[in-house]
């Protein structure tokens, strides 16, 4: 599996002193054109899919919601726990699927996660 340099990641050049060690924090995009903002859209869609209350979605995304409904709903500890449980379940499912594709990764953090699955 090829090791990718992270000097192509926007805003985070992998050059200069310590570049090799910083390269471990570089995650090569999994899809052409995928941006951090695009990942926010995916995250929001996942929350919709698992039925996370709108108020909690807004809170997690850092959005201020001025609707009347938002003023009458509140975030509970149980809502936050369900969100974390459901997102953790999706994360673990994704890691298992990734491990089926390849049991290792040149990215140290991902490689450690794959070994633990």
UniProtKB/TrEMBL annotation:
Keywords: DNA recombination. The keyword Phosphoprotein does not apply. InterPro entries: DNA_brk_join_enz (IPR011010), Integrase-like_cat_sf (IPR013762). The keyword Ribosomal protein does not apply. This is Tyr recombinase domain-containing protein. GO terms for molecular function: DNA binding. GO terms for biological process: DNA integration; DNA recombination. SUPFAM superfamilies: DNA breaking-rejoining enzymes. Residues 1-23 are annotated as: Disordered.
């Amino acid at each position: 599996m090829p090791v990718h340099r992270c000097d192509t990641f926007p805003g985070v050049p992998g050059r200069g002193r310590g570049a090799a060690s910083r390269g471990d924090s570089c995650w090569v995009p999994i899809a052409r054109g995928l941006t951090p903002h695009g990942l926010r859209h995916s995250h929001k869609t996942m929350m919709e899919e698992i039925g996370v209350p709108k108020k909690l979605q807004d809170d997690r995304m850092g959005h201020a919601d001025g609707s009347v409904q938002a003023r009458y709903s509140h975030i509970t500890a149980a809502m936050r726990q369900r969100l974390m449980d459901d997102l953790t379940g999706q994360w673990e499912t994704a890691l298992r699927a990734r491990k089926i594709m390849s049991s290792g990764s040149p990215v140290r953090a991902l490689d450690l996660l794959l070994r633990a699955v």
